[in-house]
C-alpha cells in the first residue's frame, strides 16, 4: 500500500481535503466513462498545478511512430495509442476580476469529491478564498450518460459567501490537445471547422493518418436564483481548434448561480455528418433536461448493479474494492459494439496505448459472460475473428510464417501489431493461446457452440498452424520445443521452453483438431466451407498431431514441479521474503539486466497454466508448484494477485487468498504499484471479480453443469453474487454456516455444491 486517503465507503469513492500531491492520482481514481467515451477527473476550471489532462473516445486512435534506437526486421512501424481527445469539460471562471484556480487560492477548505458508483456520477465541492479576498462555495456534478452515450453533463454552481460577485463563466471546447506519452511531441488532431449557434458550439477535427473525424460540442445554460437565465454569450473567442463563450453574471452574496454544460463527441465511426449528429443529440439532451438525464443515469446503473453487484458483509474496504472494480469495468465496456474492446487503462489514462491485449481473453471474458447477456462475450470473440486476416498477415510479413498461420498481435487497435518492444511483440506469443482458450471457455460456459462453426474454427486453425510452424524438433531430446520466447513473466526474455507457452501450444493444436472433427460430423456444410477456404489437408493435420503429441515440458522430477523454462533452477534462488523492501518494486529500482538474471516473477506463469487447465493437474501438483513459484513472485503486474488468490483459496490458504484479494481489489485505490496517476488497471479488475466468484465461491463449469466449492474469509460475515448461466440468473449467498442458492428463470437448474447435486427451483 502506498496511499491511504480514500475514505472507506460501501458505494462511493470519497476524498476529503485538498492535497495537491494527490491530484493526479485522484484524476485516475475518480474517472468516469460510459463505454463510448471517458474522462479523467480533471477540474473543469483552470488548474495551474500538476495535472494529467485526459478525455478519450472509444475506437479513436493514432499510429504514433515507434521510437527505437536501432532497426530490426519485422519491428512494428508504430505504437497505436488512444488519443487524448478534444476537451469538452472546460469551464474557466473569473470572479471579481480574478481567474479562479485552486492552485493559487489563498485557502481551500471543506474540499470533498465523491464518485458515486451506485448512481454513476462524480461530485466535487469546496469553499475557496481567492487572492482578491472573495470567498465562494462551489459544487459540481458530472456524469457521462449511459442512455445518450455521446453526451456528458456538468452542473457547476457557485455561491459568493462574503461579498457580491461578478462571475464570468467561460465554457469552451478545445481540439488543441496533446498526449502525455507522445513519442515525438507531435499533435494528433487537425482542425477542420469551428461553428457556433446561440449557446451551442462545435469544433470538428480529424486525426492525422487515421482520419477519424470528431465533432466536439457544447451547449450552455446559465442559472441564477434557481431559475434558468435566457442569456446569450456576451462575447466569443474563436481560433482554428477552439471556441470559448463568455457569460457575465452578477451574483449577490449568499445567492447561487451556475452553468449547466452539455458536451461530448459525435464521431465518423458512427455518423456521416458529425455536426448534424451533434445538433441532434444536443436536442435530445435538452428535451430530457438535467434532472431527467440524471434520473436516467441512476436507473441505468441500477439495472447494471442488479446483475453484476457483489455484496460483502462486515468488510467495508473489501466491499468498496470489488464495487470499484465492477464499476470501472462497466464504465469501460458494455458490449454494444463488436468493433471495440477493453484497453488495460480503459478511459482512465494513456499507458499501454488503450489497445487490446490478451487480458481481454484471459481475464475479462469470464466477467462479461457471467454478468451480462452472452452476446457481449460473443462480440469480444467476434472482434478477434474480424481481425484474423491481419493476424495471418502479421505472422507472414513480420515473422515469415506461411499457409495461413496466424499470430494475433500482442497489442492492437485494428488487428495490426503495434507494440514497441521486440521481446514482447515477437516473443510473448503465448497470447495466441489465450485467444483460443477464450473460444473454448465461451462454449463451456454458455453452451453456445454455434460460434465455432460460424467463425471460431477458422481462428483455431490459424492459431494451430502457427504453433505447428513455431515448434522446432530437437534431435538431442527427440521432442518438439518452442525456443526464444517470453512467457507471462515478462521479467525473463528470449528464453527456451517456457512451460506455459509449450503447454498451451499443445492444447491449442489438440483443441483445434477436436473441433475440426466435431464440425465435420455435426456441421458438414460449415466444415466444407471452411476447409475449402483454408485448404487444410489430412497430411497437415497429421503433422499437427506429431508436434502436439511430442511436445517437451521442462520439469524437475526431484522437486516435483514444472520448470518455468529451461535453466530456471540455475538462477540464484533467493525468495522474495529475503529481498530488502527498499529494492521494491524491482522494475523501478533495478537495471533491466539485473531483473532478467534474477529469479523474480512478475506475474503467474507456470501458475497461469494451472489456472487455465486446473482439471489437467492434481491438487498436490498445484500445491507444489504454487508454494515454489509464489515465493519468487513480486506481483508487479496487476494481473498477478487475482490468479494467486484463486489458487490459494483452492489450496485452503485462506489468509493468503484474502491478502491477494485485497491487493487486487484495492490495487489502484491504495496504489500498490506506485503508478495510479497514470490510470487505473481496468483489465485486471475482471480478475478481482474472478477472485471472489472462482476463488472464494469456487465456481467451475464441469460436464455442462455449474459447480461451487464455497469458502469464506474469516474477515467477512458473508458474501453474495449472481451468475447468468445459460440465460438463467443464479444467486449464490455464502456465510459461515451455509450456502444459499436462488434462481431467476423459467426452469429448474441442477447445481453442484462441494460435489453434491442441488436442484434449484425458480422463484415464483
UniProtKB/TrEMBL annotation:
NCBIfam families: PRK13807.1 (NF010380). It comes from the Bacteria. It holds the Pfam family Glyco_hydro_65C. This is Glycoside hydrolase family 65 protein. The keyword Hydrolase applies. Belongs to the glycosyl hydrolase 65 family. The active site is at residue 490. Residues 323-690 form the Glycoside hydrolase family 65 central catalytic domain. Keywords: Hydrolase. One of its GO terms (biological process) is carbohydrate metabolic process. Residues 699-759 form the Glycoside hydrolase family 65 C-terminal domain. The lineage of its organism: Bacteria, Pseudomonadati, Bacteroidota, Flavobacteriia, Flavobacteriales. Residues 14-268 form the Glycoside hydrolase family 65 N-terminal domain.
Amino acid at each position: 500500500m502506498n496511499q491511504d486517503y480514500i475514505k472507506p465507503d460501501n458505494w462511493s469513492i470519497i476524498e476529503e481535503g485538498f492535497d495537491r500531491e494527490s491530484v493526479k492520482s485522484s484524476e485516475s481514481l475518480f474517472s468516469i466513462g460510459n463505454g463510448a467515451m471517458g474522462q479523467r477527473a480533471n477540474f473543469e476550471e483552470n488548474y495551474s498545478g500538476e495535472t494529467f489532462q485526459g478525455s478519450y473516445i472509444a475506437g479513436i486512435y493514432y499510429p504514433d511512430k515507434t521510437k527505437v534506437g536501432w532497426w530490426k526486421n519485422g519491428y512494428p512501424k508504430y505504437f497505436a495509442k488512444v488519443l487524448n481527445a478534444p476537451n469538452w469539460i472546460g469551464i474557466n471562471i473569473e470572479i471579481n476580476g480574478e481567474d479562479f484556480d485552486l492552485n493559487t487560492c489563498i485557502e481551500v477548505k471543506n474540499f470533498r469529491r465523491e464518485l458515486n458508483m451506485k448512481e454513476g456520477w462524480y461530485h466535487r465541492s469546496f469553499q475557496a478564498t481567492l487572492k482578491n479576498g472573495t470567498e465562494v462555495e462551489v459544487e459540481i456534478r458530472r456524469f457521462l450518460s449511459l442512455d445518450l452515450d455521446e453526451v456528458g453533463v456538468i452542473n457547476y454552481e457557485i455561491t459568493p459567501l462574503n461579498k457580491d460577485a461578478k462571475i464570468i463563466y467561460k465554457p469552451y471546447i478545445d481540439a488543441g490537445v496533446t498526449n502525455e506519452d507522445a513519442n515525438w511531441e507531435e499533435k494528433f488532431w487537425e482542425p477542420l471547422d469551428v461553428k457556433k449557434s446561440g449557446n451551442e458550439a462545435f469544433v470538428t477535427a480529424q486525426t492525422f493518418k487515421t482520419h477519424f473525424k470528431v465533432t466536439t460540442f457544447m451547449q450552455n445554460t446559465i442559472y441564477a436564483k434557481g431559475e434558468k437565465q435566457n442569456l446569450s454569450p456576451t462575447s466569443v473567442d474563436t481560433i482554428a481548434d477552439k471556441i470559448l463563450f463568455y457569460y457575465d453574471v452578477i451574483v449577490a452574496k449568499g445567492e447561487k448561480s451556475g452553468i449547466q454544460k452539455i458536451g461530448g463527441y459525435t464521431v465518423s465511426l458512427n455518423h456521416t455528418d458529425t455536426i448534424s449528429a451533434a445538433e441532434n443529440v444536443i436536442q435530445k439532451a435538452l428535451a430530457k433536461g438535467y434532472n431527467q438525464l440524471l434520473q436516467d443515469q441512476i436507473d441505468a446503473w441500477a439495472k447494471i448493479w442488479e446483475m453484476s453487484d457483489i455484496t460483502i458483509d462486515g468488510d467495508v474496504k473489501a466491499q468498496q474494492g470489488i464495487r470499484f472494480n465492477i464499476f470501472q469495468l462497466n464504465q469501460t465496456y458494455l458490449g454494444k459494439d463488436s468493433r471495440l474492446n477493453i484497453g488495460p487503462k480503459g478511459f482512465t489514462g494513456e499507458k499501454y496505448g488503450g489497445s487490446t491485449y490478451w487480458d481481454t481473453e484471459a481475464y475479462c471474458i469470464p466477467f462479461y459472460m457471467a454478468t451480462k447477456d452472452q452476446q457481449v462475450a460473443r462480440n469480444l470473440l467476434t472482434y478477434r475473428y474480424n481481425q484474423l486476416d491481419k493476424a495471418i498477415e502479421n505472422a507472414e510479413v513480420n515473422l515469415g510464417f506461411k499457409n495461413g498461420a496466424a499470430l494475433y498481435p500482442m497489442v492492437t487497435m485494428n488487428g495490426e501489431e503495434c507494440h514497441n518492444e521486440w521481446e514482447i511483440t515477437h516473443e510473448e506469443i503465448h497470447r495466441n493461446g489465450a485467444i483460443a482458450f477464450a473460444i473454448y471457455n465461451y462454449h463451456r460456459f454458455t453452451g453456445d457452440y454455434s460460434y465455432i462453426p460460424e467463425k471460431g474454427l477458422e481462428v483455431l486453425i490459424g492459431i494451430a498452424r502457427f504453433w505447428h510452424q513455431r515448434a522446432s524438433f530437437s534431435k538431442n531430446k527427440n521432442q518438439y520445443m518452442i525456443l526464444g520466447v517470453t512467457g507471462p513473466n515478462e521479467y525473463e526474455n528470449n528464453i527456451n521452453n517456457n512451460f506455459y507457452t509449450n503447454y498451451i501450444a499443445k492444447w491449442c493444436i489438440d483443441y483445434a483438431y477436436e473441433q475440426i472433427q466435431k464440425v465435420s460430423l455435426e456441421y458438414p456444410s460449415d466444415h466444407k466451407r471452411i476447409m475449402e477456404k483454408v485448404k487444410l489437408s489430412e497430411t497437415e493435420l497429421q503433422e499437427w498431431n506429431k508436434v502436439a503429441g511430442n511436445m517437451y515440458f521442462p520439469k524437475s522430477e526431484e522437486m516435483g514441479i514444472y520448470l518455468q523454462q529451461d535453466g530456471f533452477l540455475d538462477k540464484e534462488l533467493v525468495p522474495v521474503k529475503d529481498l530488502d523492501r527498499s529494492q521494491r518494486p524491482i522494475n523501478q529500482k533495478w537495471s533491466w539486466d539485473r531483473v532478467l538474471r534474477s529469479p523474480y516473477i512478475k506475474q503467474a506463469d507456470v501458475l497461469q497454466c494451472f489456472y487455465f487447465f486446473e482439471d489437467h493437474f492434481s491438487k498436490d501438483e498445484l500445491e507444489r508448484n504454487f508454494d515454489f513459484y509464489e515465493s519468487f513472485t513480486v506481483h508487479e503486474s496487476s494481473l498477478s494477485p487475482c490468479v494467486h488468490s484463486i489458487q490459494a483459496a483452492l489450496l485452503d490458504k485462506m489468509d493468503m487468498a484474502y491478502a491477494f484479494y485485497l491487493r487486487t481489489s484495492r490495487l489502484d485505490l491504495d496504489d500498490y504499484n506506485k503508478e495510479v496517476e497514470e490510470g487505473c488497471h481496468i483489465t485486471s479488475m475482471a480478475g478481482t471479480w474472478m477472485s471472489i466468484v472462482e476463488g472464494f465461491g469456487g465456481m467451475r463449469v464441469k460436464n455442462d453443469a455449474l459447480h461451487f466449492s464455497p469458502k469464506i474469509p474469516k474477515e467477512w460475515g458473508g458474501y453474495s453474487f449472481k451468475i447468468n448461466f445459460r440465460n438463467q440468473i443464479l444467486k449464490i449467498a455464502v456465510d459461515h454456516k451455509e450456502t444459499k442458492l436462488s434462481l431467476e428463470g423459467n426452469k429448474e437448474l441442477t447445481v453442484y455444491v462441494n460435489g453434491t447435486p442441488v436442484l434449484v427451483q425458480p422463484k415464483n
